[in-house]
Design goal:
globular, six-stranded antiparallel β-sheet, alpha+beta, homodimer
Amino acid sequence: MSLSTDFERDLLADIPLARAMQLSVRDYSADELVLAAPLAPNVNDKGCAFGGSLGSLLTLAGWGLIVLHLRQTGRDCDVFVQDSQMRYLAPVWGDFSAHARLGEGETWQAFSETLATRGRARTRVHCRVPLPEAGDACTLEARFVAIAKSPIGAG
Amino acid sequence: MSLSTDFERDLLADIPLARAMQLSVRDYSADELVLAAPLAPNVNDKGCAFGGSLGSLLTLAGWGLIVLHLRQTGRDCDVFVQDSQMRYLAPVWGDFSAHARLGEGETWQAFSETLATRGRARTRVHCRVPLPEAGDACTLEARFVAIAKSPIGAG
């Protein structure tokens, strides 16, 4: 199975709220991870997407981008979100998706080098829920830390 | 029934994810709204509380604080979150609660006066998930806007 199929299976197995949201992995490349969710289980009192669902999908997309990169490069790490800034720009009236990329100025090379040297590394991720026509419904800038499970040099 | 019981019933009826989280209203005063959730439906892959559940509960607590104030004062408004900053400080290994209060320097009086004059008003809310011993597991600073449903002077 592909890396992204395994990742979707793990998310749905391990996180009950991901199941409740009916989350799926839509697309994955080295540069971008796209998670998707239908509106119905994620609706709010106004009939549009619930802010908590949008924030959860955005945060999971950012987290997943790093987790998938680490799986691809064979590093065994725990990945934690440290902080995030979210902007709600327009309501979402249909099914939606969250697109995650590294933040401006961040590179996988710098991240991997720090991780190899220090056993932990931080990076910023930019995530957005695009509107069907153009522009974004919401954006999330988040900072994550990856911590190697086995100490450096321990094998 | 009390205002907070009605609010809990509405949340669970209108927002499927609030049901999935098994959210409840623990306490409400003019100054503070406390929402609670059990760990089991809100767990992540590491066995502690999922960041998306923490963010959702914090955002709903902030939103609810304003919605309940407006219901108490008889104003018919829509309330939207505009932006938020979240900090994850420590993992949560048990059931948890989100406590929402007005942000520093904000007052209900200023909020109500602006709403009465302009038909809309913004306010900042400070929300936190306390740790069982002391300190916070995470915090959220969020800005909300309330928009009157009927135009000023329309009755």
